[in-house]
Fold this sequence. Notes:
CATH superfamily: Ribonuclease Z/Hydroxyacylglutathione hydrolase-like
Low-confidence stretches: none
Radius of gyration: 16 Å
Amino acid sequence: MKISKHLHSCFLIEEQGKTFLLDPGIFTYQEKALDIPNIEKLDYILITHEHPDHMYLPLIQELLNKFPYVKIITNPAIVEMLAKENINATYEEDPFVKVEKVPHEKLWDSEPPENVSLTIFGRLLSPGDSLHFTNSAEILALPLAAPWESVTDAVNTALKLMPKVIIPAHDWMWRDEFRKGIYVRLKEFFQTKGIDFKMMETGEQITI
Length: 208
């Protein structure tokens, strides 16, 4: 599996001839962290929930302009939202993508939106904005920073599930110097638990 990170929770994933884009959000769009002209093919756009840091309509429309037949898999609320924009999407899983409803973490100023975890080829799981999920996979896209969590919460969740590999997600709000320092600490800690934490930088592709 080839994985590249494009800020925050946006990942481009290639596996067995299929290409998936996970959670294309506003930070990715504003900072031009995804080089759309150089993407040769795109089979799936996967969206965990409707917050703009995970789903930004102008970016989705730009992707659809190049890949009009891409399949969008998400939750029922977003299916309805996109239908109003004449964009087809589904919440039904298929042989390559498993969908499971998991709760978005609580927010102090609004009701949390519908959220799903998405598992690609049974190997990589992204829970969106949730730490309350029980399914795991070999590779976990672990959310690290948000108003609704702490790094300690994220680490404790990972230790319950014990994936083989962790890729860092949901950390756009950290300045680079701080983020890189946290990555080093997480890598050293998870090594003691037999988990490989990948210190991914924007645009860097890794193979697992």
